């Protein structure tokens, strides 16, 4: 992923982002993603409302658990990651119930997706964060937003000494993660009658 022709954009890392702006970028960037399409199909009436609910609830849960958002000043590029401690069973149950309630007819599928991700999260990794989302709006490509994403991961590895675990949602995104120095962990996570996710890890 070349960034040599784009201006430098220093990531703003915060535990109190403009959540509405974060959600808007995530919904816009992931609307056609195969994993999101599986969970909240494009044929779903009022789909935008359920997409917004999904990204709001999951992002808020990470922030409440000690996570952070890195973003460009205009939120055209965002990275969302967890704290270093996993959520408690009670916290996770509340999040799953909230997702199922607010995602309408897609609630059960959305809940299943999150349960599958949780079940496959490795338990033997060194200190790390879980990067749930990394997104750049299509119209912001070439503006330095992608470089901001790379800068956010550099901040985690060098300044904070943490590894980064994530699940690539397509073979294309897997290639991008590998170009950033990540390695694939084990076999893909295959969703029931659906696409695959690819667990990856970048050590500190």
Structure description:
It is a single chain. The chain is α+β, with helices and mostly antiparallel strands and 204 residues long. It has a single domain, classed as Aminopeptidase (3-Layer(aba) Sandwich). It is 43% helix and 19% strand. It contains 7 helices and 8 strands; from the N terminus they run βαααββααβαβαβββ. Strands 1, 2, 3, 4, 5, 6, 7 and 8 form an 8-stranded mixed beta sheet that branches. The two termini are 20 Å apart.
Question: What labels describe this entry?
Answer:
alpha+beta; 204 residues; 7 helices; Aminopeptidase
The CATH architecture assignment turns out to be: 3-Layer(aba) Sandwich
> How helix-rich are the residues, as a percent range?
40-55%
Q: Which fold name corresponds to the CATH topology?
A: Aminopeptidase
Q: State the CATH class.
A: Alpha Beta
Output the CATH homologous superfamily.
Gcn5-related N-acetyltransferase (GNAT)
Contiguous uncertain segments of 5+ residues: 1-7
The number of E-state strands comes to: 8
Sheet-strand content, in percent, reads 15-25%
Radius of gyration: 16 Å
Structural class: alpha+beta
Order of helices and strands: EHHHEEHHEHEHEEE
What would the principal axes of the Cα set say about the shape?
Answer: globular
Number of helices: 7
Number of structurally distinct domains: 1
The largest sheet, given as strand count, sense and whether it forms a barrel, is: 8 strands, mixed
* CA distance, first residue to last residue: 20 Å
Task: Let me know the average pLDDT.
Answer: 89
InterPro entries: Acyl_CoA_acyltransferase
Protein name: N-acetyltransferase domain-containing protein
């Amino acid at each position: 992923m070349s960034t040599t022709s784009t201006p430098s954009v220093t990531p703003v890392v915060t535990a109190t982002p403009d959540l509405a702006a974060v959600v808007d970028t995530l919904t816009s960037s992931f609307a056609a993603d195969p994993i999101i399409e599986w969970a909240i199909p494009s044929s779903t009436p009022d789909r935008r409302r359920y997409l917004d609910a999904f990204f709001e609830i999951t992002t808020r849960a990470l922030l409440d658990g000690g996570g952070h958002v890195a973003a460009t000043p205009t939120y055209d590029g965002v990275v969302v990651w967890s704290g270093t401690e996993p959520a408690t069973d009670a916290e996770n149950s509340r999040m799953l119930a909230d997702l199922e309630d607010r995602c309408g007819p897609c609630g059960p599928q959305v809940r299943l997706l999150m349960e599958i991700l949780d079940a496959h999260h490795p338990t033997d990794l060194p200190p790390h964060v879980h990067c749930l989302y990394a997104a750049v709006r299509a119209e912001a490509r070439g503006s330095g937003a992608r470089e901001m994403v790379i800068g956010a991961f550099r901040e985690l590895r060098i300044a904070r000494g943490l590894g980064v675990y994530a699940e690539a949602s397509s073979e294309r995104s897997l290639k991008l993660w590998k170009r950033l120095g990540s390695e694939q962990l084990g076999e893909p996570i295959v969703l029931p009658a659906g696409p695959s996710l690819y667990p990856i890890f970048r050590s500190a």
